[in-house]
Amino acid sequence: MCFKGERRKGVLIMDDVYRLAKPRKKGLLHLVFSRFFLVLVLVVLQIILAIVFYGWLENLLPFFSFVLVLITLGGVIYLFNSGMDSSAKLTWMFVIAILPVSGVAFLIFTRVNLGHRKIQDRVGELISMTKDAVSQPEGVMEKLAATRSGTDDLVTYLNKSGCFPAFDQTEVTYFPLGEDKFAALLVELKKAKSFIFMEYFIIDEGYMWGEILKILEQKVKDGVEVRVLYDGMLEVSTLPTNYRKLLEERGIRAKAFSPIKPFISSHYNYRDHRKILVIDGKVAFNGGVNLADEYINRRERFGHWKDTAVMLKGDAVKSFTLMFLQMWNIDEPKPVFDPWLREGGDLPEHPSGYVIPYGDCPLDNDKVGETVYMDILNRAEDYVHIMTPYLILDGELETALKYAAQRGVDVKIILPGIPDKEMPYALAKMHYKRLIEAGVKIYEYTPGFVHAKVFTSDDRKAVVGTINLDYRSLYHHYECATYMFETACIPEIEKDFQNTLARCSEVTEQTIKDEKLFYKVAGSLLQFIAPLL
Length: 533
Description:
Layout (H helix, E strand, L loop, with lengths): L2 E6 L2 E4 L13 H5 L2 H18 L1 H6 L1 H21 L4 H13 L1 H13 L4 H13 L10 H8 L3 H11 L8 E6 L2 H13 L4 E6 L6 H15 L3 E7 L11 H6 L4 E5 L13 E2 L2 E5 L3 E5 L16 E3 L2 E6 L2 H12 L9 H4 L12 E7 L7 H12 L3 E5 L7 H12 L3 E7 L5 H16 L3 E5 L2 E3 L3 E4 L3 E5 L5 H6 E9 L4 H12 L2 E3 L2 H5 L3 H10 L7
C-alpha cells in the first residue's frame, strides 16, 4: 500500500483503493429514516388533515374530541401495563398528551418492531443454539462463592442472558489510551496464524485503519481467515456502500450490520456498538476505541481524546469469539461456530483473578449492561469510580448512584469537558444537581473528550467495555464489556482514573449556577424526550 507524502491535518492521505469515497454529506439518509423524521412526518400529516377537514371537524368537534380521549386513554393504559422503564413511560405519556394521534401512532410503530421481528427471532435462536458453546471451567464458581463478593451471583445472572462464564486462566492488559491499544494491536495482528475477527461500530479511512489494512491484506495472502463486521450506519457516514465488496476483492470477508435500506423501520434504531478483535482464539481486544484517527489522537476533533481498552490472553478469549460469531451468523443460512471455538488460548504466564466477558442485546428484556453497573454500585463498600462520555440516566440508575453515595461510598464520575454532541451534553448537566446533592462527585475532563467506559470499585472490581451511561447503550445497542474481579490490572485502572482526575475540573453548585443558559434551556426541554433520543 502506498501513501502520498503530503499530510492533511496530521493525517496521511492514502491514494489507493482504501481511499474509497469522495467527501459527501453525512447522515442525511440516516435522518430521513430516523424516528425523529417519522414523528415529524406524522405531526405534519396531522396538521394537514386538520386544515383540510377543518369544516368537518368544526361540525363534528364533540365526536372528534371523544375519539382523541379514547386514543389518549388507550395509549396510557397500554403504557401502565407494559414492562417499559418508568422514565420511558413518562416520556411517552408526555408525547401522547401533546400529540394524541401522532404519539400513539409512533408508540405503536416502535412496539410493533416493524422490520426486525425476523432478526429478533434469529438472535434468540443463535443465543439458544450456543448457550453451552463455551463451558464454565471447573471449580471457578466455587472459588468465586468463597470470596463472598457476589460475583458468583452476577455470573449466574449473566449466563441466563447468554453464555458468559467466569474464567481464572486469563491475563488482562489495560491500555489507558487508544494509542496504547493501537500499538499492541499491530503487534498481535502480525502474529496471527489462523483467523482474525473484527467487529467495530466505527471504521474510518485514515492512518489507523490504513495501517491495519496493510496487515490484514498480507495475512489473507498468508492463508489467515479475516472477517470484518462493521455497523451499517457507516454507509451513510464514513464508508461508501460498496466498501464490503472492495474488501472482499482483497480476500477479506466483510459485512455491514443492519445497513440502511429505503424503508422506514424501527430496526435501524438498534446499532452494533461493539468493539471486538479476536486473533486465533488466543488474544482479544475490547474497550471504547474504534478504528478511526481521532481515537489515537492523530486527528483532533474535540480536544484530547481520552479512551481505554483491554487485551485478554487465555481462556476468556473464547467468549469474545462467540459474541462475534453470533453477530456474524445472523444472516447466515447455516451458522457455523465449532471450528473457531475449538481454538484454545495459550495459558498465560501470570493469570490473576477472574475475567467475565459479556454482551448485551437490545432485542430481549434483559438490561444486562445496566444491571452489571448497578450490581457494582449496590455492592460497593469503599468507592466506585466511573468514566463515561454520556450521562443520560433512567430513574433506577440515578437512584443507584445516589444511594451508593448516601451510604458513604465515594462515587466519582468523570465526563467530557469538550462535548462531541451538544444535546447529550446538555442532558447530562440536568443530572448534576441531584447527584451532587446526594454526595456524588462529578468532574469534567478539561483537555477534551472522554470516550472511555470504565467502572472501578474497591480495588477488586472493574469493567472496561463499550457501554455508556445513556439510553442508547443501555436500551438500544448491541454492546459488550469485560468484567474483572481481583485481576492484576485493576490497580492500573484505578491509577489511570486518578491521573485523569488530576486533569479535570470539579462540578460544584456554583459552576451549575454559572452554566451557560443554552445548556440549561436545552437540557430542560430535552429531558421530556430523553429516552427517545
